[in-house]
Write a structure and sequence with these properties.
alpha/beta, 19 strands, about 35% helix, seven-stranded mixed beta sheet, about 500 residues
Length: about 500
C-alpha cells in the first residue's frame, strides 16, 4: 500500500536509532531491515498469544512483564490508532525505554478503517499537530521531532487502492501540510537537552600521492600532514564506528572521523605512517578484485593509455549498448575528450560491459597491463599488514567498484557480500561498513546495505546529524582541499552554514 512507502522512508531516515535492544509490534521486519548488525537483541510484542513471531505476549497499555529501562529503540508503526488509550500505551513505551532510547512511531492521518481490527477496533486519525501533541505530552517537546508525508495525489491513490509501485518518486516527494497522509515521530527518552551542534563530520580521502593527478583524487603527503595538524588544533578525531554509534551527548565537540576509499597501496605506504605518527585512527574502504594479483582501476588505465603524451592510433572504435562509436585520439585535446566520454559510459556500465571496453582499449593501444603499477589497489598481504596497524579499520567497497544502482539485484548483493566476506577472511575482523562506489545509491541499494551493514557511506558534504540514515552517512571530500580550505569547510559544517540538501544518488568522478 501507498503508506508503506512513507513508513519505510521515515524509518530509513532514522535508521541509526535502530540499534541495541529493539522492540517492535507483531513482527520484527523493520528491525531487521533497518538495524542490521547494530541490533543486538530483537523483541516482538503482541497481545495475541497465537502469533508465532511474538517473543513478548503483553498489552501495550500495561506490560508489567517488561522491565523498565529495557530497550534502546521501540518501533511503533501504524499501531496507536487501534489502541483505545494512546496515552497509557505511550507511557508504557516511555517506561521501558532506556534513558536516551528512541521511539519511532507513525500515525495515519487518512486511511480506510483497519480490516484486521474492524469498525469497533480502529479508533483514531491524527493530524501532524495532534501526533506531535500526543507524543510531547509524554516525552517532552525538546525531545520530539516529526516528519509529515503525503499530498492530494498520494491520499487519493491510497484510498483508491493503488499499490506503492504505481507512483513515481517525484509524486511521493511532494509533502502538502494541508493534505497529510502520515506523520512520523521520533521521540527520545530524557538525556538532557538535544545537542545544538552536529554529531560530527566524516572526511573522505583516496590517495596520498604527490604525483600529477588530473582526477583530483590525490593529496600530497605534505598537504595531508597539514590536514592532520588542522584537525589536531580544531577538532577531535575519533574512530568512524565510535562517531556513528555513540549517542551524540557522549561524543566530544567537533568530532571528526577519517576514511579512505579504493584501497590504493599508498594508503599503506604513505597514509598509515602519517596517521600513526599523529595518533589518528582511520577506516579504509577496499575492493577485493585484485587481492591475489596486482591490478589497476579502469579510470587509472584510461589516464595511462589516453594521456597527453600517448603514442596511439588516431581513432578508437568502441561498441557499447548495441551501438558503435568512433572516438578521436589524435591530439591531447582529443584524448582528454575521449577520456571524459569513456568515463561517463563506464561509470554506469555493468562489469561485463566495462571489462569489454577496457579489453578493447588495451588491445587497440597495443599496451598490456602495466607490470609495475604505482597506482594500484592493495593485494592480500598488504591488506593484512594495514589491518594489523593500531587504529586502522577495514571496510568494504564492493568487489569490482561498480555503481550499485546500475546493477541487477543479484549482482548488487554479490558485490556487497563477497567483498565483506573476503575482507573478513583476510583480516579476521568483521566488516560492517560499506562505502558506495562513486557515492552512488538508490532505494534498492541503500536498503540492501541497511540490512547487511552497520553503516553505508556516501559522498555528500554534510555533517552527520543526531539521527540519520545509517545507509547514507555523508562525507566531506577533504582530499580536494588545502589545509586552509579544510578549516573553513569544517567551520561551516559545524556551525550549520553549509548544510547541503540530502539527495538520493550522486555520481562524483570516481
Amino acid at each position: 500500500p501507498i503508506d508503506r512507502r512513507y513508513i519505510e522512508t521515515f524509518l530509513a531516515d532514522h535508521s541509526s536509532d535502530v540499534r541495541g535492544s529493539v522492540l517492535e509490534i507483531q513482527e520484527n521486519d523493520f528491525t531487521r531491515a533497518c538495524g542490521g548488525p547494530r541490533v543486538s537483541a530483537s523483541h516482538v510484542l503482541d497481545i495475541d498469544a497465537s502469533n508465532p513471531r511474538a517473543t513478548v505476549i503483553a498489552d501495550l497499555r500495561h506490560a508489567p512483564t517488561l522491565a523498565a529501562d529495557s530497550f534502546d529503540c521501540i518501533i511503533l508503526t501504524q499501531t496507536l490508532h487501534v489502541v483505545d488509550d494512546m496515552g497509557t500505551a505511550l507511557a508504557e513505551c516511555y517506561r521501558v525505554l532506556r534513558p536516551g532510547g528512541v521511539l519511532l512511531a507513525t500515525f495515519p492521518a487518512a486511511s480506510r478503517v483497519c480490516l484486521e481490527y474492524g469498525q469497533d477496533g480502529d479508533f483514531w486519525r491524527l493530524t501532524p499537530a495532534g501526533a506531535r501533541h500526543l507524543i510531547e505530552t509524554t516525552f517532552g517537546r525538546s525531545q520530539t521531532t516529526s516528519d509529515v508525508f503525503g499530498n492530494v495525489l498520494t491520499n487519493t491513490a491510497f484510498l483508491q487502492g493503488l499499490g506503492a509501485g504505481e507512483l513515481t518518486d517525484a509524486e511521493y516527494a511532494q509533502a502538502d501540510p494541508y493534505f497529510p497522509a502520515l506523520t512520523g515521530i521520533r521521540a527520545r527518552k530524557g538525556g538532557g537537552p538535544p545537542r545544538s551542534t552536529p554529531r560530527g563530520v566524516v572526511l573522505l580521502y583516496h590517495r596520498v600521492d604527490a604525483a600529477h593527478d588530473p582526477q583530483g583524487l590525490s593529496i600530497s603527503p605534505e598537504e595531508f600532514t597539514r590536514h592532520l595538524e588542522v584537525l589536531h588544533r580544531t577538532c577531535t578525531v575519533v574512530p568512524l564506528d565510535e562517531m556513528l554509534g555513540t549517542p551524540p551527548a557522549q561524543l566530544p565537540e567537533r568530532a571528526v572521523a577519517l576514511t579512505f576509499d579504493d584501497g590504493y597501496v599508498d594508503n599503506l605506504t604513505a597514509a598509515a605512517p602519517l596517521l600513526e605518527r599523529h595518533g589518528v585512527p582511520a577506516t579504509f574502504f577496499l575492493t577485493t578484485r585484485w587481492i591475489d594479483t596486482p591490478g589497476e582501476y579502469w579510470w587509472d588505465m584510461l589516464e595511462r593509455i589516453l594521456g597527453p603524451d600517448a603514442d596511439i592510433p588516431a581513432v578508437f572504435g568502441v561498441r557499447h549498448g548495441g551501438s558503435s562509436r568512433a572516438l578521436p585520439t589524435a591530439t591531447p585535446a582529443d584524448r582528454a575528450s575521449t577520456q571524459r566520454t569513456l568515463h561517463d559510459v563506464l561509470v554506469h556500465a555493468s562489469l561485463a560491459e566495462r571489462d569489454d571496453v577496457v579489453d578493447a582499449l588495451m588491445a587497440w593501444s597495443g599496451q598490456r597491463q602495466a607490470t609495475s603499477l604505482v597506482r594500484r589497489p592493495m593485494v592480500a598481504d598488504e591488506i593484512r599488514e594495514l589491518a594489523r596497524r593500531p587504529g586502522m579499520t577495514i571496510g568494504a567497497h564492493t568487489v569490482n567498484h561498480v555503481s550499485l544502482p546500475d546493477q541487477p539485484a543479484a549482482v548488487m548483493l554479490t558485490e556487497i557480500e563477497e567483498c565483506r566476506l573476503t575482507l573478513r577472511a583476510l583480516t579476521g575482523h568483521s566488516v560492517d561498513a560499506l562505502a558506495f562506489p562513486y557515492g552512488a545509491l538508490d532505494r534498492t541499494s541503500a536498503a540492501a546495505v541497511r540490512h547487511a551493514c552497520a553503516w553505508g557511506l556516501t559522498c555528500e558534504s554534510r555533517p552527520v546529524a543526531d539521527s540519520f540514515d545509517a545507509a547514507a552517512t555523508p562525507r566531506l571530500e577533504a582530499g580536494r582541499l588545502d589545509a586552509s580550505a579544510l578549516a573553513v569547510a569544517l567551520e561551516r559544517l559545524f556551525t550549520g552554514e553549509a548544510d547541503a540538501p540530502r539527495s538520493a544518488s550522486r555520481l562524483p568522478a570516481v
